[in-house]
Amino acid sequence: MKKKPLSSREERILLLLQKFDFLTRDQINKCLRLGSTRNTNRVLSDLSKYLQCVRNGYQSIYYLSREGRLYVGCEKIRKKGSHVEHTVMRNDMWLHYGCPSDWKNELKIDNKKTAVIADAMFNQGGFSHFLEVDHLQTMQENRLKIARYKELMPNIALQLGHYPVLVWMTTTELRKNQLIEACSGLPNFKIYTMDDIQ
Question: What pLDDT is recorded for position 3?
Fold first, then answer.
């Protein structure tokens, strides 16, 4: 029996997962405007051959199965683990900023002496933005990363013609306040918690 080809909407879901690794049902719904939760569940159920699903609390988180990777020509194999929630938080910020088309994940920034890997980079309002997601790392690790950004920013500003915005996504108000304190001295930064963007 010949396989039914996927619709363009179904292909868009697979391509989204190729680019963003792990997406919740609600993120997929919000991005592609699939309507009700019931309809979203139906669409994702129809794609079950191409998707893997893990539960995290009340959320269903989807990623490409072997068949899904083959369909879109994706070589990167995703596996569930502690990084999944970090990735979902990063993708919440992509949605919060209106799904920027120039969004790039895991981008290395360096000046020969110092280097940092930003969780994402995108442009908005004429400014470059570097995103960092604070999920499980220690505050000491975050402070060290901010110190590296402070060292890199003058060179980046020279290249771009402006100081980019350093954006942090974190889990609690306490951590937000600690990050605000650590970022003091940077000309442009924004710190969010999940409550801030919902």
Answer: 58
Q: Where does 52-138 have alpha helices with state H?
A: 66-72, 83-96
Q: How far is CA 81 from the centre of its chain?
A: 16
- How does pLDDT run across 33-77, given as a tens digit for each residue? 988 989 999 999 999 999 999 988 788 999 999 999 999 999 888
Contact 116, 129 (CB under 8 A): no
What does the alpha-carbon distance between residue 32 and residue 75 come to, in Å, rounded to a whole number? Answer: 24
**pTM assigned to the model:** 0.89
Residue 1's SS3 state is coil
Beta strands in the chain (DSSP E): 23-24, 51-56, 59-64, 104-110, 115-124, 127-133, 165-170, 189-193
Supply φ then ψ for residue 157, to 5 degrees.
-60, -35
Question: What single-letter amino acid sits at 135?
Answer: H
